[in-house]
Amino acid sequence: MTSANSSWVDKVKANKNIMSNKSLWSYILVAPVMFIAFIVPMVLWFIRSHHYGIEHEQDAAQLLFEKQSVVMHALGLGSMFYVLIGALGIIYAFTKFSYLFSMSKLDFYLSLPTTSARRIQSAYMVAVNNFIAIFLGVEAVAVLIAAAFGAINTALIIAILIQTVRMIIFFYTCFTITTLAILLCGTRMIALVLTAIMLYFPYILGEEFHYLNRMFFSTASELSENTAVLSPCNDVHSVANIIMNKFRFYSVDKVFDVSSVMNTYLQTVRYDIDMIVTAVIATVLVVFVYKHRRAEHVGKTVIFRPVRWACKVLVCVIASLGGMVVIRSILDSAWSRKLYIILCIGMLAICVFVGSLIEICLDSDIKSFAKGKRQTLMAMAILLLIFFIYKGDLLGYDSYVPSASSVESAALFYDDFGSMYDNKYYYNFDSRIDWSSYSFSNMKITDMDAFIPVVQKGMECARKCNGDFDKAEKYGWEQKVLYNLKDGRRVYRDIIIPYDIDPALMDKLTGSEEFIKGHAPCFYEGIFTTENLTMANSSLSCSFPGGDESTNNVSVIYDVVEAYKQDVLENYKYSYIRDTSAIGELFLTCGPTLSCNFPVYESFTHVIDVLKKNDLYGGKDYPFDMIKELSVDNYFPGYNFAEMSENEAMELYFKWFYGTREYGFQSKTYTDKDKIKEILDNCTYENYAEWEYPFDKVDKQFNLYFDDKYRDIFECNFAFKKGSVPEFIYEDLNK
Hints:
Layout: H1 8-20, H2 24-55, H3 60-74, H4 82-97, H5 103-111, H6 116-148, H7 154-184, H8 188-216, H9 232-246, H10 258-266, H11 269-292, H12 305-330, H13 340-363, H14 373-392, E1 407-413, E2 419-422, H15 438-442, H16 448-464, E3 476-485, E4 490-498, H17 503-510, H18 513-519, H19 530-535, E5 539-544, E6 547-551, H20 554-571, H21 574-579, E7 584-590, E8 594-600, H22 605-613, E9 630-634, H23 646-657, E10 666-670, H24 673-681, E11 683-685, E12 702-706, H25 708-714, E13 718-720, H26 727-733
Antiparallel strand pairs: 1-3, 2-8, 3-4, 5-6, 5-7, 7-8, 9-10, 9-12, 11-13
Helix pairs in contact: 1-6, 2-3, 2-6, 4-6, 4-7, 6-7, 7-8, 7-10, 7-11, 8-12, 9-11, 12-13, 12-14, 13-14, 16-17, 20-22
Transmembrane segments: 24-47, 80-102, 123-149, 155-175, 182-205, 269-289, 309-327, 339-362, 374-390
Protein name: ABC-2 type transport system permease protein
Keywords: Membrane, Transmembrane, Transmembrane helix
């Protein structure tokens, strides 16, 4: 029994005995495990980086970056060893409070000359102090080893110090959450299950709501972030991913300096705030529950009835929402809006089944399957509320547009104007840009008066097609929207720019310098400099109808790129690019990995002049006299697109395009010079870089192919002009 009259010396001795109880195991077992987990992989990564750098002749700067990346990945903010830290927090909690599951052990602890408050304080002090001592010791050894490899600098020291504090907080959070689960349960197994629920249910719910958004809403984007709160595991995982994605590959503008490391970390500080808030809440609950737990609670599954109810309702809701996602995935290929009733019924059936299963597990009696009807009904009511909120879009998700005053910047992205592709590695500069990411990373539009009206039209079109982006071509151009809000949030939406959108509305947005520089990869800073082009042994190929030319002269390549930038700024806008076919392309290769492709238009006079000056312009006229034969294919025999409305032709074409219907096939090869000339006179070069809407320009009923000898020259991009198909084509191929 505890004694309030014990001497001060007796209390100190009792607390000392309790604090040292069962702590030796942590040094014997945990220290070697942490040593092996942190130091051995880091040393192996150092050895691998060193030999890889020698084998691939990396320069000193890149080799240093690779070694520093190892430190960041093992000890710094990008460390993935948080899994071990969290597991240790759980193990320590079960070790320190396992006596709560045994009446005999509980009687022994209650008989010691100390108070309940001192007992839990002692357990916390032993666990946290032991972990900190072991963790700091291992980290000190790891830092010394990293320094011996020459991989430590000021930025990494700061990153390691921040990560050390973060991991101590994460350990404390996992320890406290596990302690709370132990206090709420009377058996080890149920306590372990409850620990998993409390650690992961916010993240799981966040993921499920993310999938539900995409299931129910036409404008939901797969890029949307999981907005889970009070989820420490998600917090540390998100920070590690963001940091390592930032410093994943070598580049001259991505180095481990104090500024870049701190700026990147400050973008993620909200996750650490969430983890600290979670730790504080869990600590308060531990204190509250510990005061109300009694010895007679040993052996019960879940001690407090409200907690049992809440756990059952929560698990039923999570399992049912997850089951609904699975059902939707199974029915994906045959999905229609009418099948939502199946989702609702399946969701409720899963809820009933899971509720019965929970009662059986809690009572260890199969006869208990019918108990807890009120909790099951409560869970079903919550599920129905969620279902109808999503089905009716009662929160206005599909029409949400943030206020202009709350937006710091925005981006409209999907395809870029031109493309960049890095097949795998960095090569002395930042080449990690591909066709889909330049606009996403670099477009910063602040003129919301031009941006929001276009997005609203796109959202209306997306709702019209019920979010069926697999068939977006029927309605318009698929685009993605990003709002960078002033409060740090990033809001994503998928939209479809309708074919019939007002060109003046689009020109106001796309003709702005903000849009152009964020949309055309040729404006990417830091790549197209003379220094980088020289280091990468760059080459330029110019493909035009009159022939192809190439050069390795870096100064010429630089002049071409600068002239191209000027032409894009002067000419790019929606109405021009939509209605005009490119006359050629520039292919820029930088080293073994980076390739760029930029379309050239007839109005791009600056770049054409530079190309002519350096004998790189082949001319815009095609050598049609070289054509000896060509083939015309008709995938729609019996139909005449020229006599159909645009919408009718589109509906017919897309049924064939998506493979839902075949209309037959006819093909004919022409060798007669007069017929070939007539065909070519009625054709146009179909090279629309973006905003392509071919049905108002070309006849999509027929495909033209040149013989293999000349196919590379003409690239098979020719098509009949709308309303210009020769009569003999219909006679030969439309029987």
